[in-house]
Design a protein that fits this description.
The protein contains ten helices and five strands; from the N terminus they run H-H-H-H-H-H-H-H-E-E-H-H-E-E-E. With 237 residues, the chain is α+β, with helices and mostly antiparallel strands. Strands 1-2-3-4-5 form a five-stranded antiparallel β-sheet.
């Protein structure tokens, strides 16, 4: 799938509406706001079926609400490991027992480390770290998840317009690119100047897709101006 196709899938209003409906179905569980946020992130990152599975398991009391956060990693291992035959089932909905799934996910993680080794470590170096994600979240820039093709997606909302701390974190963290230490530059205007950053946010949120393994990363998508640009400020087809 092309990155541009992934973008429109992740940001589709219909998809987000369906995901919200799934979470609202669990009203009787009286989930904490943080738990609903995790469910939404998981649904965006891995698919609606994963969020539904967690809700079903909480409804039958085989899964505790406080354990939801663990599945951000478990589902990542599942997506990677099921292609290699590390799981009993390829469909998450076939697992009725979270304990079985958790055991298989943990075992798959160990196998993946052995199988991929340095490749996994190198990939982590190309992504925004958990600490940096938290820094962005603290100033209002939201991490929406990982696309199927390995790009981290961040939402820069209109609400951070005029926020110098938000712009500084955005510039220092998301304006990284492959070869930056050797003189490579980024031409995305919102990353160079706070005035431009603010002017874009007057009209709409914008989104950044990040993975330094791609020499054209980061990418910026701004719906209001119909712009989807790579780091060289070149339109993505």
């Amino acid at each position: 799938m092309k990155l541009i196709d992934t973008v429109f899938t992740m940001l589709s209003e219909q998809y987000l509406k369906e995901l919200k409906n799934i979470i609202q179905e669990a009203e009787e569980l009286q989930l904490q706001p943080s738990s609903e946020e995790y469910l939404e992130k998981i649904g965006k990152m891995f698919g609606k079926g994963y969020a539904r599975w967690l809700i079903l398991r909480m409804k039958d009391k085989s899964l505790k609400e406080e354990d939801i956060y663990k599945y951000m990693n478990f589902f990542k291992y599942f997506e990677q490991g099921r292609k290699l035959g590390y799981f009993t089932y390829n469909d998450i909905l076939k697992y009725k027992n979270p304990e079985q799934f958790n055991r298989e996910a943990t075992a798959a993680h160990e196998k993946l480390i052995g199988f991929q080794g340095e490749e996994l470590e190198d990939n982590e170096k190309n992504l925004v770290s958990p600490q940096q994600i938290q820094t962005l979240e603290n100033v209002g820039i939201k991490f929406l998840g990982l696309t199927p093709d390995g790009y981290q997606c961040f939402k820069v909302p209109m609400g951070v317009q005029g926020n110098e701390k938000a712009f500084t974190a955005y510039k220092n963290i998301l304006a990284q690119c492959q070869g930056r230490d050797k003189g490579a530059k980024i031409s995305i205007c919102t990353m160079a100047d706070m005035g431009t950053f603010d002017s874009y946010l007057k009209d709409d949120d914008f989104y950044v897709f990040f993975n330094m393994k791609d020499p054209k990363s980061p990418y910026q998508f701004h719906y209001a101006s119909d712009q989807f640009m790579d780091k060289n400020d070149t339109p993505v087809a």
